[in-house]
Write a structure and sequence with these properties.
Layout (H helix, E strand, L loop, with lengths): L1 H36 L1 E6 L4 H14 L2 E6 L2 H11 L7 E5 L1 H9 L9 H6 L12 E8 L1 E3 L24 E2 L6 H14 L1 H14 L8 H9 L5 E3 L2 H8 L4 H7 L3 E3 L5 E9 L6 H12 L1 H9 L13 H6 L9 H6 L1 H10 L4
Parallel strand pairs: 1-2, 1-3, 6-7
Antiparallel strand pairs: 3-9, 4-9, 5-7, 5-8
Helix pairs in contact: 6-7, 6-15, 8-10, 9-10
The protein binds fe (ii) ion.
């Protein structure tokens, strides 16, 4: 008699366990879904402490937590591609038009339709189909050391071919996406033949070797080792605000020359194809591109907001510029041809 009762008890316990498990199952799915809606995983090529404050602000406003996964831009794109549909990423943030278009061509973004993003991000700074949106602008003007090169000689990038700059022009290497996008900009505006002539004349003026860092290049202009260069303004802004007295003093000798038009690139982001929380991801992009948060996101790296000039005092001192009419999409699409022309012209 004892045994059957025992068996029955075990059996009942078993049923109870199965029952509670299935109950758990019934409630687990919505609970997990809810948890997933409360976090946005961001793969980011940016790494500034002030970004984290902005993400915390977003969490306070929306209840959505931001889980930041940082790495080098190309590595984050490669990781996203490798993980495919299983990637935990909801948002990819990366710099440069060429990378945004590359990620789009790899089918890593999903198109999103957002009235807020369409309102806050100018049409030339976003994908027409909503795959990616600019979050900040970065300008790449000419910079000169007036003791070496007369700033009045330079009105356009075309003037970088002038014989007065011979042996005094310092440029970033060809592998830099900054150099590639600058060339793509000229190519889109001037066409192939003019760009080939421009590249040839400019490369002939370059003081070898080509630089692998904007920071050392801008420093070299301040030190008078180079007379002129083309660099993103945030590098000069960083040196001007440096704790190092020598960097500061050097940077003060560098003059920004706003060539007309000036090449503009972006930091941009999009919602990933794999996102388990596209709604939260869209809300984060809306937040980062909004006039208030966008100002902070741009200021973190001395960049310009997507609209206007921002309130950064260092950038204000540089003055304003006429941005190139070339769209970010065109920059990305022209990248391959630009690199080919650079190579042919001997841009190392
Ligand atoms: Fe940079």
């Amino acid at each position: 008699m004892i045994q059957p009762v025992f068996i029955t008890r075990v059996f009942r316990l078993g049923l109870a366990a199965i029952g509670s498990l299935s109950l758990l199952g019934a409630t687990t799915t919505p609970a997990l879904a809810q948890a997933r809606n409360q976090v946005v995983n961001v793969y980011s090529g940016r790494h500034y402490n002030t970004d984290k404050e902005l993400y915390a602000q977003f969490t306070r406003q929306t209840g959505i937590r931001v889980n930041l996964i940082e790495g080098k831009d190309d590595e984050m794109i490669e990781r996203l591609r490798r993980e495919g549909a299983n990637s935990p990423a909801d948002v990819l943030v990366t710099v440069d038009a060429a990378r945004l278009i590359r990620a789009q061509e790899m089918n890593l973004f999903r198109p999103i339709n957002s009235a807020a993003l369409n309102r806050d991000v100018p049409a030339n700074l976003r994908d027409p189909n909503g795959h990616w949106f600019a979050l900040t602008r970065r300008a790449r003007p000419v910079m000169v050391n007036p003791a070496q090169v007369n700033p009045n000689l330079i009105r356009t990038y075309g003037d970088l071919t002038r014989k007065e700059l011979s042996g005094k022009l310092c440029m970033r290497d060809r592998s830099s996406v900054y150099s590639q996008s600058l060339t793509a900009d000229v190519l889109q505006r001037a066409g192939k033949a003019t760009t080939e002539r421009w590249l040839k004349g400019m490369v002939a003026n370059v003081k070898q070797p080509f630089f692998t860092s904007d920071t050392t290049m801008v420093r070299a202009v301040g030190q008078g080792e180079c007379g002129a260069t083309v660099a993103n303004t945030y590098y000069l802004a960083r040196l001007l605000n440096s704790d190092k007295a020598t960097d500061k003093a050097n940077a003060r000798k560098v003059r920004v020359v706003w060539v007309n038009p000036t090449h503009v690139n972006v930091t941009g982001g999009g919602v990933t194809r794999s996102s388990g929380n596209p709604e939260g991801a869209r809300r984060l992009l809306e937040f980062l591109s909004s006039p208030t948060a966008g100002e902070g996101y741009a200021a973190a790296n001395n960049e310009y907001p997507v609209k206007g000039w921002g309130n950064n005092p260092t950038l204000r001192n540089f003055g304003t510029f006429t941005a190139s009419p070339v769209t970010i999409q065109q920059l990305g699409q022209r990248n391959r041809e630009a690199v080919q022309l650079m190579q042919q012209a001997g841009w190392k």
